[in-house]
Design brief:
453 residues; alpha/beta; Rossmann fold; four-stranded parallel β-sheet; 41% helix; 16% strand
Length: 453
């Protein structure tokens, strides 16, 4: 019989996370203090993060041990399977071999618990009682609610308003695991009240929700902030995905030619692809493709510049591809891909040409998602569907050239709670939105000025 799933035993699960910082082609630009423009030090981050995560954020160690208590929780769903997409290959009539790493098997239905569990563990060890966070499509909010539940922490989630109403069942899942969830912007924080005073009918954005969550954490001594993407320690925790994938491809006797992931802030993409980057830097012929929506084209059209991670300007300034911290994306259904910036580690590698980026509109993405669901049986999240679309395109090129390339994508989450998006697609109500150049230029005018030293 043909093999459809490549499985690892629990004893084969990686025991360390991979830190890409020592292997970067050039040093990562430092985070800058929003008021002084000076590089941020541990003391600047200590009000909202535990020291262990701060140390991981700046670590130069290539391998960082995973705590035993985190590994034991990972065992609830890890190692996750690597699937050979044989039925999709047959439908495409391609000589390419397509694999997908299935992170949808976690309790929260996505890759996000890989870092949520780690962050909850380190905060619990530091004596923190509550975590505050933001969430876009709800995947991260669900993951942190789950992790806080495991470690006996309270959890407050500021959910982007448009997603709060688009995706009520992710909100229900957060409530089941004990989290309090609010549609952001709210009147609970000074940042939220300021935004509502300026734009009372706003649909919200991740930048706005981050402002609220950071303020909440900074103004309560028993509360820390948890971020589901962007920062270095989040990328680190997700590398268990790529490390498992490397082992599974070895078992299958394969070497990847193309690696693909969707990008919102960069966590699932980085976790999947970063463990392979050293091979590419050493000269191996390997394409690594980051996929985003045309409605939020951060990597493909954004400026590579210092910007705030949030809307109000409470966070450090980070060198990244950005659409401007005042950018408010349209309410597309790929809510997890609606962030104005991206992870600085990922952005540096895109800027250096190590990773390539492309953008797709909604309808072709949902076409690919439907084909995947009809062949492989799993309904993808709209975010995941962006990676599937790129894989389908790469497989089509292989059909034209006759090349039997190995294409591997990260299936970062299922779409069971995204069926309203599929209804809109099937009813032909989705708009293929491309963010207008004039609005993009206006948003980029708000990039912060670095204070002169």
């Amino acid at each position: 019989m043909d093999t459809y799933k490549i499985l690892l035993s629990e004893s084969e699960m990686p025991q360390e996370w991979y830190n890409i910082i020592p292997d970067l082609p050039r040093p990562l630009p430092p985070y800058l203090h929003p008021a002084t423009g000076e590089p941020v030090g541990p003391q600047d981050l200590a009000p909202i993060f535990p020291m262990e995560l701060i140390l991981q954020e700046v670590s130069q160690e290539r391998w960082i041990p995973i705590p035993d208590e985190v590994l034991r929780i990972y065992q609830l769903w890890r190692p996750s399977p690597l699937h050979r997409a044989r039925r999709l290959e047959a439908a495409l009539k391609t000589p390419a071999r397509i694999y997908y790493k299935n992170e949808a098997v976690s309790p929260a239905g996505s890759h996000k618990p890989n870092t949520a569990v780690a962050q909850a563990y380190y905060n619990k060890a530091a004596g923190i009682k509550r975590l505050a966070t933001e969430t876009g499509a709800g995947q991260w909010g669900c993951a942190l609610a789950l992790a806080c539940n495991f470690f006996g922490l309270e959890c407050t989630v500021y959910m982007v308003k448009v997603s709060y109403y688009q995706k009520p069942y992710r909100r229900s899942l957060m409530h089941i695991w004990g989290a309090d969830v609010y549609p952001s912007p709210t009147d609970r924080t000074a940042a939220g009240r300021k935004i509502l005073a300026q734009t009372p009918d706003t649909s919200g954005s991740l930048g706005m929700a981050i402002s609220e969550a950071v303020e909440d954490a900074a103004t309560h001594p028993d509360t820390n902030y948890a971020l589901g993407s962007v920062l270095n320690h989040v990328m680190l925790h997700q590398t268990i995905v790529g490390l498992e994938t490397k082992k599974q491809l070895d078992l299958a006797g394969e070497q990847p030619d193309v690696l693909i992931g969707c990008v919102g802030g960069g966590s699932n993409f980085a976790g999947f692809c970063f463990p392979f980057v050293p091979e590419k830097l050493k000269g191996r012929d390997l394409r690594i493709i980051a996929v985003e929506p045309t409605a939020c084209p951060t990597l493909t059209r954004g400026a590579y510049a210092y910007d705030f991670g949030d809307t109000v300007g409470l966070t450090p300034m980070i060198m990244m591809h950005t659409l401007g911290h005042s950018f408010v994306p349209p309410g597309i259904h790929a809510g997890g891909l609606r962030y104005h910036g991206d992870a600085p580690l990922l952005c540096l590698l895109v800027h250096e040409g190590v990773i390539e980026a492309r953008a797709y509109p909604q309808n072709p993405v949902f076409d690919a998602a439907r084909l995947f669901a009809q062949t492989e049986g799993i309904v993808p999240a709209p975010e995941t569907a962006h990676a599937i679309k790129a894989a389908v395109d790469e497989a089509a090129r292989c059909k034209e050239t006759g090349e039997a390339k190995v294409i591997v994508l990260n299936f970062s989450g299922h779409g069971h709670f995204d069926l309203a998006a599929y209804d809109a697609y099937l009813e032909k109500k989705l708009e293929d939105y491309e963010f207008p150049e004039e609005l993009l230029k206006k948003a980029l005018e708000d990039l912060p000025q670095i204070p002169k030293k």
